[in-house]
Write a structure and sequence with these properties.
Blueprint lengths: L24 H25 L8 E9 L10 E4 L2 E4 L5 E7 L1 E8 L6 E7 L2 E9 L7 E6 L1 E3 L10 E4 L5 E3 L2 E8 L1 E8 L6 E7 L9 E3 L4 E9 L2 E8 L6 E2 L9 E6 L5 E6 L14 E6 L6 E5 L2 E6 L5 E6 L7 E7 L4 E16 L5 E7 L5 E7 L6 E5 L3 E5 L5 E6 L3 E6 L6 E4 L11 E2 L5 E8 L2 E8 L6 E2 L6 E7 L5 E7 L4 E7 L6 E5 L7
Parallel strand pairs: 1-7, 9-15
Antiparallel strand pairs: 1-4, 2-3, 2-5, 5-6, 8-12, 10-13, 11-12, 13-14, 16-17, 17-18, 19-20, 20-21, 21-22, 23-24, 24-25, 25-26, 26-27, 27-28, 28-29, 30-31, 31-32, 32-33, 34-35, 35-36, 36-37, 38-39, 39-40, 40-41
Length: 526
């Protein structure tokens, strides 16, 4: 019952009973029906205001999914409530939902699932980036390609480990099966190559490891003025890495013009490290020899040299040295093992000489006692000197059969071969292009390498041992020389000299493009 309160009128007594509002049965009935309706309306409005109901409160949620390297993950599933979709190639996905607080789940096989509560507003929502970490249980199959750095040919019989994992092999193809994702150290070794090591990261998207180019074993020696402008001698690997001094300079003196022995165990070089000065106060230079590690450093002779050469067997160093103020030279032979030197006396050398392949004989051009030029051959101890032919010859070279080859210009270029055993001279018939002797024979005696100028362009060429089947190995056009074969006869190092660069290069004989190893300082020694 609802009371009706009336205002007290003047004169009313405090004890006058208050009148109460009386509702008719019909009114009561109406109120009982209306109250639930009003309460429901209020509840609906509250839910509507919160975005829980009402079609106009629809929303979308956009998200980008990446891995721990910030790379997009494709086909990751994004779930919000009952709705879900997969990410595209860019790692993005858009899911339809309703406004309000929602739970978003992002998952993909091989990754750790991630769940988070998000607040969604009506309309479009950009959540940003969700990063999934690799699952420790994820595994992938991997392949790896291994090639020669110089020839680009596949390397066989390589030993490969990925931490403690070893691949299966099919020919020159290498495969790892079910590799757990994570960080690894890759190690590759093969006979005749530098060992390769690298840190690699394996993820769920990994399918193959980067191609590895194995660098053939071996070193080069080169001259550089990187130490305060002073010339010094350095070594490097064939890809230019691991550069370091061969031997420390002495004070302000210099070391320069290094030349490897054919067996690459020793080198000779010129130096002022003796620190002696001539009458004009100029540091005097000497010829030195040492092992490739800088040990057994030995001073050979005070120099005023024109030509210096190793014998093919690396046992001897020959050099032409002025012995007076005349423009002629004495021919000297230094034995690396015995440390003794021999002078070919009574003959004034004129610039050309060559050692036989076995290091037992030397051929040279000289002015004899009668004052005329001639080609001679002698034992390396200076005995048994024999005149081969009168006149001036050049391009001396010993063949694979250890016979002497030489060139004469007599109204035309003519080449000959002198059989040391029979003393018979025969004409060598060469192609019009292959007129170059003074070649360097490969260790396996199958090829000759030489520098030749064609149409004003100087490049490196090879032919077979007989001088046939010539091939041009470079297109650099500025090859200077200093040819050195690899011990396995598969590549050649040489110098390039131009207005743009002075550098040491290397080229494989299979026709692959030549590669620069390192820039060098280049001293001429006349």
């Amino acid at each position: 019952m609802i009371e009706q309160i009336y205002p007290q009128q003047p004169g009313d007594s405090q004890n006058t009973p208050k009148k109460q509002l009386q509702l008719s049965p019909k009114t009561k009935k109406i109120l009982l029906i209306a109250a639930p309706i009003i309460l429901f309306a209020l509840l609906f409005y509250g839910l509507f205001a919160q975005g829980i109901i009402g079609s106009e409160r629809n929303a979308t949620v956009s998200v980008k999914v990446t891995d721990s390297d910030q790379a997009a993950i494709e086909n990751a599933q994004v779930v919000i409530g009952d709705n879900f979709t997969n990410t595209n190639a860019d790692g993005t996905a858009t899911v339809a939902t309703k406004a309000g607080k929602r739970i978003m789940v992002v998952k993909k096989t091989g990754y750790i699932q991630k769940s988070s509560e998000i607040t969604v507003k009506a309309g479009a929502n950009d959540i940003g980036t969700v990063t999934l970490e690799d699952s420790p249980d994820a595994r992938v199959d991997l392949s790896i390609s291994i090639v020669d750095y110089l020839s680009n040919e596949e390397v066989s019989l390589a030993k490969i480990t990925l931490n403690d994992l070893i691949p299966s092999t099919t020919g020159n193809n290498y495969f790892f099966k079910e590799v757990p994702i994570g960080d690894y150290e890759l190690t590759i070794s093969a006979n005749g190559y530098e060992t390769f090591t690298s840190k690699v990261v394996i993820t769920k998207t990994s399918k193959e490891l980067d191609k590895v180019e194995l660098v053939p074993s071996g070193k080069i020696v080169f001259e550089s003025n990187r130490e305060g402008g002073k010339r010094g001698i350095f070594t490097a690997s064939l890809d230019g890495s691991d550069q370091k001094p061969l031997i420390s300079r002495v004070g302000n003196t210099e070391d320069y013009l290094p030349t490897f022995s054919p067996n690459q165990q020793r080198l000779y070089f010129f130096s002022t490290r003796d620190n002696s000065k001539n009458s004009q106060g100029v540091l005097e230079e000497y010829l030195y020899v040492s092992k490739i590690d800088g040990s057994e450093l030995t001073k050979i002779d005070k120099t005023n040299f024109y030509t210096t050469k190793w014998s093919a067997d690396s046992s001897l160093i020959g050099y032409l040295k002025t012995t007076s103020d005349t423009p002629t030279y004495g021919l000297f032979i230094y034995n690396v093992s015995t440390k003794k030197k021999v002078e070919i006396k009574d003959y004034k050398a004129t610039g050309e000489f060559a050692f036989s392949l076995n290091g037992q004989r030397i051929a040279f051009v000289a002015e004899g006692a009668d004052g005329s030029n001639a080609l001679y051959i002698a034992n390396v101890d200076g005995t048994n000197i024999v005149k081969v032919i009168d006149g001036y010859v050049y391009s001396l070279e010993f063949s694979s059969a250890n016979n002497l080859r030489y060139t004469v210009y007599d109204n035309a270029v003519k080449s000959y071969e002198y059989n040391i055993s029979t003393k018979i001279i025969s004409t060598i018939t060469l192609s019009d292009q292959d007129k170059d002797l003074s070649a360097v024979l490969s260790p396996d005696k199958k090829y000759r390498a030489y520098v030749s100028t064609r149409d004003g362009k100087t490049n490196l060429f090879i032919s077979d041992a007989s001088g046939k089947n010539e091939r041009k190995l470079t297109d650099i056009n500025k090859v200077q020389g200093s040819i050195l074969w690899s011990l396995n006869s598969s590549y050649i190092t040489f110098n390039v000299v131009s207005s743009d660069e002075t550098a040491r290069y290397v080229v494989a004989i299979n026709g692959a493009k030549a590669k620069k190893i390192v820039d060098i300082n280049f001293s001429y020694n006349f």
